[in-house]
Amino acid sequence: MSQASAVVPAGSSKQTALRMLRRRSFSAGYLAQVIDLAVREVLANQFDEPDEREAALVHQRLTRYAANGRPGSAELARAMLDVKHALDLVRNGHYRASAVPESGLDTVVSAEQLLELVAEVGRDRVLAAQGGALVILAEDEGASTVYRPVSAAQAKALRQAARSAKEEAIRLHEGAVEVLSPHVRMADWSKDDGYGVAVDVVRDGVSVQWWPAAVPESLALWEQGGIRQLCAALLSARFTVPEGDERTPHAVMLCI
Predict the structure, then answer these.
(1) Predicted confidence band at 47 (pLDDT cuts at 50, 70, 90)?
(2) How many angstroms separate the Cα of 246 from the Cα of each of 116, 236, 242?
(3) Between the CA atoms of 173, 175, 177 and 179, what dihedral angle is there, to the nearest 10 degrees?
(4) 250 pLDDT exceeds 60?
């Protein structure tokens, strides 16, 4: 496997940092105006793209503002440190994103996308890992994500695989709906009493489950009413249906 080459994102670090700060959302809304004012003090036209020297001058002005205890200075200082942290960590052109614990297919993100994400989540939730990888820690009980550097060729192959998987998932979904809809009541998400069988895609399989809508007692139709068994029988000709353990209650969700 080819090594992933280190690629510094387009533009200098100061230019990139300034672009990221100008796109950032602040709880203190006037900080966007503070940044624009610093840009206007350096550039004759604030809509021009600053060069490296000009971006460094803007950075100096913002650093002074953040250090002087002025309104919003603490938030601006945090944002500038988060952006610097992102620029220090994201050094490759493409990354492979993998959920931990594993969930779904891996995806590919560009350096620009990962820079924005790392800066947004903040330094406390982003860790450097071996080989130039990054880990973005989950909030609460969610899944963390590992971003591993890959080459441009690897990124292209991953995108093609993801596109193929998505197309196959669409075919699986359409096939399951085609088989089931003539025989069972399908869920209608737009109605309070639209309970029925819902078909969705879970990773590389089709998820068939009962959606009770606002009628929780309708759940009995899934198990005791035999609809789950009927769905399994109808789909077994086209999909691989897990047998399950007859000694234990079936889960409400049936993955096929």
Answers:
(1) confident
(2) 49, 17, 11
(3) -150
(4) no
What's the CA dihedral at 45, 50, 56, 58 to 10 degrees?
A: 30
Is-contact 205 232, C-beta < 8 A?
no
Taking the domains of the chain in order of start, what are their residue ranges? 13-150, 177-255
What DSSP element (H or E) covers 145? Answer: strand 144-150
Tell if the pTM clears 0.85, that is, is over it.
Answer: no
Q: Which pair of tokens denotes residue 22?
A: 């100008």
Average confidence (pLDDT) over 82-103:
91
Joined tokens for residue 212? 């009770």
Mean pLDDT of the chain: 85
**Is 142 buried (19+), middle (13-18) or exposed (0-12) by CB count in 10 A?**
exposed
Contacts by 155-162 with C-beta closer than 8 Å and gap 24+? 155/93, 155/94, 155/96, 155/108, 158/96, 158/106, 158/107, 158/108, 159/108, 161/105, 162/105, 162/106, 162/107, 162/108
